[in-house]
Design a protein that fits this description.
By secondary structure, the protein is α+β, with helices and mostly antiparallel strands. The protein has 12 helices and 34 strands. The strands form 8 sheets. It has a 7-stranded antiparallel β-sheet with strand order 21-22-23-27-26-25-24, sandwiched between helices. β22 and β23 form a beta hairpin.
């Protein structure tokens, strides 16, 4: 969409799966509506009229083109840990932004050029648990050892650092760990013991450089080199929950989560040098009734045989009390690389799991043991629906109604019923239950179907704390639905969100929409997505950023097109999540 005199970018902001947006040579000023395009990796927006990029701060952008815009402050990009390319006019930037650009150049980001590496800059990035370390002097590689500027690394790792000019020594300390390293000496002291370094620390153009692997291992982290990304990753041994939330595993620090080269939709994909760990999960609810582990094994073997792969004999094992089967085979990838595979399938209470390790090298004893340890750490995790049913599913309908009402009353809801005795309060909600029931339907009756969200209808009785509405609300130009909704959210906000002078502006009947208001003496603007006649409750994410200092946040739960909204502090939200298993939206 280059060179089209575009002024308003908001019509494309609803394309949530869009990864690459090219809108250079236009008249765009405001990019606030892009803040929720979470799939966006490339934004090329040079030669526009953009003045603020703060809305991009939480996006995982890899390529950002901003040259030719009157931007003075780009500090918002400091949180973009996946950034690889940045194009920006340095002359107009303020001092903090110029400093940030310089550190990006020294830390593996290609600034205003095609690649990060130059004759004087290595192009190497260093990440501590996925957070980029920003250096003033680029890392160097000496005979296979990566050396980095000491202070940014130590501070990112939580060390207090002292430099002794007389002895040209670094002393770094944090709980349980002390380090002493001296320039041009291969001996270091770790917790009082002398150790020998492969490469001595040294001064490079006024910056003391230290071997990153030694420092990371002293911090109980594993350092892993990724040749493809020219990056060093520092990770501890840790437990990882799959994005689906259906299982977790424990992995060592050398395993790094990556994006697979292939387009296969893995539930988990990690790399460790030439080794790859892959996992899939399939819900039993999505498979025909009566499907067994034998059936799963037969289907897997059939799929392998279709591509002329003959697996080894299957052996039966146990994985965290789950029955499992394991087999191995070899195959050649599309690019001609040959892989050795060990694959395990397991049957859980609610899911089937498939987890394998692959390597271009022979899978030896060390890899087999590592894989076995990971495999035996596999834990099936229950969904909020499953946890709720296990806890409340055996209750009779009235028991479940009263259990929910009493719980939320204790937490501070239903303040208008303070004068009611316990019996009067129970009688009120027995009546509410009768009114909720249909002739052939009771959301609290679990005998045929368990509705894990039924208690939200009980909470909906507290009109001063809860907004529970169908989001199909005749949203459209002139109907002022968003203006009315913001007022309603203000009423339930416990004082955290008190907008005034609310204006709802439509550029056309199909949007884009802009809502402006005054909040705490500042003019604010939010950009709902056009969703036909539905309310875009995603704007709560923008509002939450505005009220974060209040200690309260809006939370929501979606019930098909009906949405439950209330305001909680962090401890209240955590307690309800643990006690009642409500699936609060992660995007709000």
């Amino acid at each position: 969409m280059n060179n089209n005199q575009i002024r308003d970018i908001c019509p494309v902001a609803g394309l949530y799966k869009l990864k690459r947006l090219v809108v250079s040579d236009n008249q765009i000023e405001d990019i606030g509506c892009l803040s929720r395009m979470n799939s966006l990796t490339d934004l090329l927006a040079s030669d526009n009229k953009i003045t603020s990029i703060a809305p991009l701060a939480k996006l995982n952008i890899e390529w950002l083109g901003l040259e030719g815009n009157p931007i003075e402050d780009i500090t918002a990009v400091s949180s973009m840990n996946k950034l690889k390319h940045l194009y920006v006019d340095g002359s107009a930037l303020n001092a903090p932004s110029k400093s940030l650009v310089s550190r990006f150049e020294q830390s593996g980001v290609a600034v205003n050029r095609g690649q990060a590496e130059t004759d004087t800059i290595s192009g190497v990035s260093v990440f501590v648990q996925d957070v980029r370390v920003l250096f003033e002097r680029a890392p160097i590689i000496d005979d296979g050892t990566t050396l980095v500027q000491f202070r940014p690394l130590f501070e990112k790792l939580g060390f207090a650092v002292k430099w002794d000019e007389d002895t040209r020594s670094i002393r770094a300390e944090k709980a349980g760990t002390s380090l002493i390293m001296q320039a041009d000496h291969t001996e270091a002291v770790l917790n009082g013991d002398t150790v020998t370094l492969e490469v001595a620390p040294r001064n490079v153009d006024g910056s003391m450089m230290v071997p990153v692997r030694f420092v990371s291992e002293a911090s109980h982290l594993e350092a892993t080199w990724d040749q493809r990304a020219k990056a060093v990753y520092l990770w501890p041994d840790r437990t990882i929950t799959a994005p689906s939330g259906l299982f977790s595993i424990k992995v060592g620090g050398k395993w790094v989560a990556k994006s697979p080269v292939s387009k296969i939709n893995y539930d988990l994909y990690m790399e460790n040098g030439s080794k790859v760990l892959m996992a899939f999960v399939e819900r039993k609810a999505d498979i025909e009734d009566g499907f067994t582990l034998d059936d799963y094994e037969a289907a897997l073997k059939e799929s392998l045989e279709k591509v002329n792969i003959k697996p080894s004999e299957t052996k039966s094992i146990t994985v965290d009390h789950m029955n499992a089967r394991q087999l191995s085979y070899s195959m050649e990838s599309a690019n001609g690389a040959k892989y050795e595979y060990v694959l395990t399938i397991a049957e859980g209470q609610y899911n089937f799991f498939r987890m394998g390790v692959a390597s271009t090298d022979a899978i030896g004893t060390e890899t087999e043991q590592d894989y076995e340890n990971i495999l035996q750490s596999l834990k099936e995790l229950k969904t909020t629906d499953q946890l709720s049913e296990e806890k409340f599913g055996a209750l009779k309908p009235v028991e479940r109604v009263l259990d929910a009402a009493r719980y939320y009353r204790e937490l501070g809801f239903f303040a208008g019923d303070q004068s009611l005795s316990g019996q009067q309060f129970d009688d009120k909600f027995k009546k509410v239950h009768e009114e909720l029931k249909g002739e052939n339907w009771d959301p609290f009756d679990s005998s045929e179907y368990y509705d894990s969200l039924a208690e939200l209808y009980i909470l909906g009785e507290d009109k001063k704390r809860v907004w529970l509405k169908d989001t199909e609300a005749d949203v459209g130009e002139g109907n002022e639905i968003y203006a009315r909704t913001l007022k309603q959210w203000s009423d339930i906000s416990r004082g955290a969100f008190q907008p005034t002078e609310i204006q709802e502006n439509w550029k056309s009947k199909e949007g884009p929409v802009e809502i402006s208001f005054m909040l705490n003496g500042k003019k604010r603007t939010i950009h709902p997505q056009y969703m036909n006649d539905f309310i875009d409750v995603g704007i709560l994410a923008e509002i939450n950023e505005m009220i974060q200092d209040s200690g309260y946040q809006f939370v929501c739960v979606e019930i098909d097109q009906t949405v439950f909204v209330t305001v909680l502090n962090a401890s209240e939200k955590d307690k309800i999540s643990k006690d009642r298993f409500l699936p609060f939206s992660e995007n709000i």
